[in-house]
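Retry 2 of 3 after timeout on previous attempt. Resubmitting structure tokens to design endpoint.
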């Protein structure tokens, strides 16, 4: 049995939840999110609680769906009340980012600037070398941050590139350090 799925989800004040056919819609102060419901999952709304059940809890795949939809609905409620953010750090000489409307312009050491179009519902802010991606959909925020990171992944010798704040990049020794280590062992 799924422990996450069994717990009823409390609907906070200022949040409205409704089931529309095969989808659940959550409205809050920051916006509205809609999630399609799997056919084997049953979602019911009873006096300020969302209750999730599956048809056959003994089946492992349906048990996984139970926990999955519990997490998805909780993340939807957090998204419409508080929102989500991901922070990216840009390291490198001359590397910088600018936000203009729904476009993020990145100078990453290439011969040209990269214009990254932000999806609808996602906003970006730049503070020195930190890019903050915010939105109400957790999946879309994470996916957008990951797509920005792939434009210039952290380089293993100098550590330049785009990385998540707090991400640890193991640096390799390089030729000079290896040669010095090999010469010292003889």
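Retry 2 succeeded. Sequence:
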């Amino acid at each position: 049995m799924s422990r996450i799925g069994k717990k009823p989800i409390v609907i906070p004040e200022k949040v409205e939840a409704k089931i529309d056919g095969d989808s659940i819609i959550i409205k809050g102060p920051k916006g509205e999110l809609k999630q399609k419901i799997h056919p084997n999952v049953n979602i019911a709304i009873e006096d300020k609680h969302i209750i999730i059940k599956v048809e056959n809890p003994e089946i492992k795949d349906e048990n996984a769906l139970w926990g999955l939809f519990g997490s998805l609905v909780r993340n939807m409620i957090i998204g419409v009340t508080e929102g989500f953010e991901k922070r990216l750090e840009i390291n490198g000489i001359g590397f910088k980012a600018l936000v203009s409307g729904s476009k993020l312009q990145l100078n990453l050491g290439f011969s040209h600037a990269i214009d990254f179009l932000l999806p609808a519902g996602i906003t970006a802010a730049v503070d020195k070398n930190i890019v903050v991606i915010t939105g109400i959909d957790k999946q879309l925020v994470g996916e957008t941050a990951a797509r920005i990171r792939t434009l210039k992944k952290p380089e293993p010798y100098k550590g330049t590139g785009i990385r998540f704040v707090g991400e640890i990049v193991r640096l390799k020794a390089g030729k000079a350090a290896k040669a010095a280590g090999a010469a010292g062992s003889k």
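Attempt log closed. The CA atoms of residues 156 and 171 lie 5 Å apart.
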